[in-house]
Specification:
Distance between the termini: 117 Å
Structural class: alpha/beta
Number of helices: 17
Radius of gyration: 47 Å
Number of strands: 19
CATH architecture of the largest domain: 3-Layer(aba) Sandwich
Strand content: 15-25%
Oligomer: single chain
CATH topology of the largest domain: Rossmann fold
Strand order of the largest sheet: 2-1-3-4-5
Number of domains: 4
CATH superfamily of the largest domain: Response regulator
């Protein structure tokens, strides 16, 4: 019984081995596809088209397909004079290759194949991808044989330009840049025909047959309200080769106007976008059609629509640059690419939560320390403010007394001189024996001596109190004004006046006597305060403004008072001119002297809506 069981097991094993290994599973051969490109391998559109074809084939067959790729480089040879010996290399190479499909890509590639390819290539099912200029009367051959599925990439230059004009309706001039290669000239011819369909009020200029440097120079000097269209620029007139993305990048960087292209080969390199051929979608479409043909679908049953490879696309960076990101002129359904994703926008709530937590913790830890430091700083500021206030008051007293004594000295010199003359005459009378000689002579001599002594004292006071020259230094005008605002903020509150300042955000430096310039601004502020005494409560504002212009800065103090009387406007800066009973009339005169000493300008003016404005202007460093 045991022997029979062993024999049965061996029999089953032999049958299993025979079924599993004796007859290997039949595998289908790889699909063999030839892709022919008309131009050089570096042509940017070819890469994205090829990527699209590979994506679709890999999705369907995995890696069980063979993709043979050849670049004919027809642009390196005269039109209709391609070297036959070179194409014979391809004829011989694929003569026995058992190809399933040919995909032809590029400008006028079909005519090249019809002229030079052998029948074993011409008779295969094929897909033809080529630019279609037929709408502009420029014919290119697209169909290779009856088994051709055509993907004619129809160019609509006028629609691309119309989209650009829709985004920039104030455009007056359009500049179209073209290279000189065969492909460039096809695009250029199309653009010229499309130009006839554009609004005749637009000035259209073609930039062609030029070097790239000249093209960049022209682009950098475009007039206002211009647009740039780069049709195709792969070769300049010195035969220097470029690819379209490179040309778009260079020209758009130099251009002073927005840049558009007919296709997406320059998209992302500086062109705004618009209505464009999408070569990536064309490649995916070609891969999808290739799968259908490999599965036996009849070519005539495959339909291609313009929507399969055209779309509206825009570069976010460029529409931001030209300030049309929020424009309603961008067509609905457009694809916006290259949006700047800010870290804060992406993780906003996490960042805010973390910041709030850190702030809360920091406040708890630093609360007592902060209170102490703030108290210390406030105390120091109060002391410094009081010291500065005392210093400014002292400076005002000295300057005002100096001006007053200078005027008094000038006025008193004349009567004193008359006294001197009278006394000297009395001496002469005594000498002539017309009075008691000794007594009168002694009296008159005393008068003379007293007169001289008085004149000497007045002269000394004038010299002592005259404005003295101080050493000028670099001064931050913003800090100076801030200090004055701090000093007078309490006085403003007391008077129920709003003290407002609008200063330059950047430091403004001048060479000046710090205390004297503070004195000028202080005079302006005090005058403004006093001008507001009889103004209603709702409009009690004193404004300090600072404006920079080239190498100068203008500081103004404006009040909302009754303004300056016309009668004194022309002499407002002269000594002893005032409209207030308690005023001395020397503050503005002193200010005028200080600003003149600093080689500046000072003036006053009434404002149309009420009040007065006092200003001075100094040179900055």
């Amino acid at each position: 019984m045991a022997n029979k069981g062993i024999i049965s097991l061996l029999f089953i094993f032999i049958i299993f081995f025979d079924l599993s290994f004796g007859h290997p599973k039949q595998t289908l051969p790889n699909k063999n596809i030839l892709v022919l490109f008309s131009l050089v391998p570096t042509t940017p559109a070819y890469r994205v088209i090829l990527d699209g074809i590979r994506t679709q084939l890999t999705r369907e067959y995995g890696y069980s397909y063979d993709l043979n790729i050849e670049y004919l480089e027809t642009d390196r040879h005269p039109k209709d004079n391609y070297p036959r010996e070179r194409f014979n290399i391809y004829n011989d190479k694929y003569k026995n290759a058992d190809l399933d499909l040919v995909i032809c890509v590029g400008i006028d590639i079909v005519s090249t194949l019809k002229n030079y390819a052998d029948n074993h290539l011409l008779s295969l099912p094929n897909i033809s991808i080529d630019l279609d200029f037929s709408a502009y009367g420029i014919s290119t051959e697209i169909s290779l044989n009856e088994q051709t599925v055509e993907i004619p990439l129809k160019l609509h230059a006028e629609k691309t330009i119309a989209t650009a004009l829709g985004l920039f309706p104030d455009t007056k001039s359009i500049f179209i840049f073209c290279g000189i290669s065969n492909g460039d000239q096809l695009y250029c011819a199309m653009s010229k025909k499309a130009a006839n369909l554009i609004d005749s009020h637009k000035e259209i200029t073609f930039i062609t047959d030029t070097t790239m440097n000249d093209a960049l120079r022209i682009a950098s000097q475009l007039p206002d309200s211009s647009l740039v269209i780069i049709s195709s620029f792969t070769t300049d007139n010195k035969q220097v080769p470029y690819n379209n993305p490179e040309s778009v990048r260079l020209i758009s960087k130099a251009a002073t106007a927005p840049v558009f292209t007919y296709t997406d080969t320059g998209f992302g390199e500086g062109s705004i976008g618009g209505y464009m051929i999408n070569f990536g979608r064309a490649g995916l479409l070609a891969g999808e059609i290739a799968i259908k043909l490999l599965k036996g679908v009849e070519p005539n049953a495959i339909q291609v629509s313009e929507k399969d490879y055209y779309d509206y696309r825009f570069d976010w960076r460029q529409i931001e640059r030209w300030k049309i990101a929020d424009s309603r002129r961008i067509p609905e359904g457009s694809t916006i690419l290259y949006r700047e994703v800010r870290v804060f926008d992406k993780y906003k709530w996490f960042i805010l939560g973390g910041i709030l937590f850190l702030v809360f913790q920091t406040l708890l830890i630093l609360n007592l320390v902060g209170l102490y430091r703030r108290q210390k700083v406030m105390t120091q500021q109060i002391i410094e403010s009081e010291n500065k206030y005392r210093e400014l008051i002292r400076e005002d007293r000295v300057l005002r007394t100096g001006q007053l004594m200078a005027s008094l000295s000038h006025e008193l010199n004349q009567p004193l001189t008359a006294i001197l003359s009278t006394a000297q005459a009395g001496i002469r009378f005594i000498d002539s024996n017309k009075a008691t000689p000794e007594l009168m002579k002694e009296l008159l001599e005393n008068i003379v001596e007293d007169d001289k002594r008085t004149a000497s004292i007045l002269s000394s006071i004038r010299g002592m109190m005259k404005l003295e020259k101080r050493e000028k230094e670099k001064v931050n005008l913003n800090e100076m004004i801030d200090e004055l605002i701090l000093i007078y903020s309490g006085e403003a509150v007391k008077r129920n006046i709003k003290l407002d300042a609008s200063l330059n955000p950047e430091p403004v430096n001048i060479v000046a006597d710090r205390t004297q310039i503070q004195q000028v601004i202080m005079n302006f502020i005090l005058n403004a305060f006093q001008a507001m005494d009889k103004v209603s409560q709702h409009d009690r504002t004193v404004s300090i403004t600072e404006l920079t212009d080239n190498e100068y800065v203008t500081v103004s103090v404006r009040d909302k008072g009754r303004g300056i009387e016309d009668a004194i406007m022309d002499k407002i800066f002269k000594p002893f001119v005032t409209t207030r009973k308690e005023g001395t009339g020397i503050g503005l005169a002193i200010s005028h002297s200080i600003i003149e000493d600093h080689q500046g300008e000072i003036w006053a003016e009434n404002m149309p809506d009420g009040g007065a404005k006092f200003s001075f202007r100094l040179k900055t460093i």
